[in-house]
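Dear U.,

For the methods section draft, I wanted the exact inputs and outputs in one place so we can describe them consistently. I've listed the two proteins in the order they'll appear in the manuscript figures. Please don't edit the token lines directly; just add comments below if something needs changing.

First protein:
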Amino acid sequence: MPYVTQNYYYDAFHGEPVNESDFPSLLERASELVEEMTMYRISSHRMETYGCEIQERIKKAVCAQIEYLDANGGSDMDNGADFQSAGLGKFNFSKASGASGSTEQSIYAPRALRLLAPTGLLYRGGGCYAPYT
């Protein structure tokens, strides 16, 4: 069972337009990436075990990841190809290097990370931490 539907993406999340034929593969890849970023603490078949607010944040994070993937080359963005520059007609795009000289772009949507931050699902440390439920 997918985390979101195309109707949820457009009607509740108000996502940027995505090619209808690309949506299923973007949804699949975005779901995989959100599960990965939460260290597989979530799964679509256990959604009902989370509180309503966490469920909504997970859905929105998947939508944010769909939007991010689509804006940055589609589901192939996760294949490791990272362009330095590209051009088409009069349009040219060049990536600026970061302070360390790295131009590698994160595969995780910054907005998805921000949406999941208050849930505790991104917590990577040890010790005692109790996220809200």
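Second protein (the one for the lower panel):
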Amino acid sequence: MKERSWKPNVTVAAVIERDGRFLLVEEETPEGLRFNQPAGHLEEGESLLEAVVRETLEETAHRFTPEYLVGVYQWTRPQGDITYLRFAFGGRVDGEVSGRRLDDGIVRALWLTPDELRATAERHRSPMILQCVDDWVAGQRFPLSLLRHY
């Protein structure tokens, strides 16, 4: 019997709050339009911090400076075919790049309150979205010094 090779998909996400609202993206998925934090896959050769800065810029046209690790989250899709290992970072945006085109599949960037997020839970890409926001609101922040990149 051939052994199945399994590994989680390592992803990063930005948890960005401004005036009680969180930066999200609305994106096209096989399940229809869904909300997500600016997020994406770690690419070969980059650090987790480099990945979250890149993904935020590509998906929202905002320059992001990570300041904290909000949490590490593991989620397996209901289909059981993919497991995600998400590193969520909190920080600040340092401006928007005017006229920058967003990644393919990203319809728009928008700012939502936690209540608006809860009201749209059926349109979330994963349960990690609201959990990351709830953890941020609860004050969960870990120093970036926890991470090492060699």
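Candidate sentences for the figure legend, describing the second protein: The chain has a mean pLDDT of 95. The helical segments are 48-60, 114-119, 128-137.

Thanks,
Y.
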